[in-house]
Amino acid sequence: MTQSAAIHPPARIAVIGLGNMGRPMAACLVHAGYQVVGFDTFAEARNKYVETGGTATATAVDAVHGAAAVITLLPDGKIVRAAIDGIKDRLKPGTVVIDMSSSAPMGTRTLGEELIAAGVAFIDAPVSGGVKRAIDGSLAIMAGGDGASIDRAEPVLKAMGKSIFRTGPLGSGHAAKALNNYVSAAGLAAAVEAVAIGGRFGIEPEVLVDVLNASTGRNNSTENKLKQFVIPEKYTTGFSLALMAKDIRTADELAHQIGVSAPLADEVAALWDAAMQELGPTADHVEIGRFLTAKH
Ligand code: NAD
């Protein structure tokens, strides 16, 4: 394979971070015919992946050995940088590093520029769709970086996602992802508040959700989260409140960094930070329902 060729199966791919998203996304790559080697600092995450038939190594350096692509699926951009710093000297020439975590875009730009200057290709390609769509390989993927590197990574991305958006230069995928989650979180919080207000007035929660879904208040949360998780108090989406709060904070910080006034993002970020402080880092993001309802 030349250094500019697209990465097709059975190329070797390292997946760093075998959490709620990393495990099913790695499984999609295996299903597509790639040789996938996973790594996670947390032995339990590695074991869970191995129990489902995956291959994992005890060190990141072993996982990236000979890899044509290295995918990171880690909690945030600072952790991604630390993980990449530990392996970047071990990558073979032509490796494409793909950060599919939801990282902060400014840090991504700096990290990407450093790697590219050192001869390593880098793109940001965060995802949306949650664990369910990670399992069936139908994620939305937002790819930022130079077109040639995205071309090379495209077969790999297509094994995990249904729609692949080219968002622009380095960091733009991460910016798009954070902005998406800001809108998603604002929509979820608004829907939860509406259901609580309606309930106090005597409208059954399910009835109000039906009204929203047939009307202009409809959003992803009214369709896929209210009746399924929030109203029955089933907190099992696999997307933590801490990660959602981080994403909204990322979007709000981006606004401040580039001098855009975003008063609603300021409020939504503060609200989700407060929920995280009260409910703790292991809470599921749909527990925002419990947090907001307790305030009524
Ligand atoms: P998770 O917490 O379930 O998994 C993260 C994993 O990274 C953990 O297993 C942890 O042990 C591991 N880890 C931490 N530091 C590490 C290191 N230095 N080296 C190797 N492994 C390390 O998180 P997740 O839900 O899988 O999310 C991963 C990323 O994807 C996050 O950035 C998140 O915001 C984003 N995301 C999550 C969802 C979702 O629905 N869960 C959806 C879209 C995007």
UniProtKB/TrEMBL annotation:
Organism: Rhodopseudomonas palustris
Location of the 3-hydroxyisobutyrate dehydrogenase-like NAD-binding domain: 171-290
Stretches that traverse the bilayer: none
Location of the 6-phosphogluconate dehydrogenase NADP-binding domain: 12-168
Organism placement in taxonomy: Bacteria, Pseudomonadati, Pseudomonadota, Alphaproteobacteria, Hyphomicrobiales
Active site: 177
GO-annotated molecular function: NAD binding; NADP binding; oxidoreductase activity, acting on the CH-OH group of donors, NAD or NADP as acceptor
Record's keyword annotation contains Endoplasmic reticulum: no
Name under which the protein is recorded: NAD(P)-dependent oxidoreductase
The UniProt record lists the keyword Oxidoreductase: yes
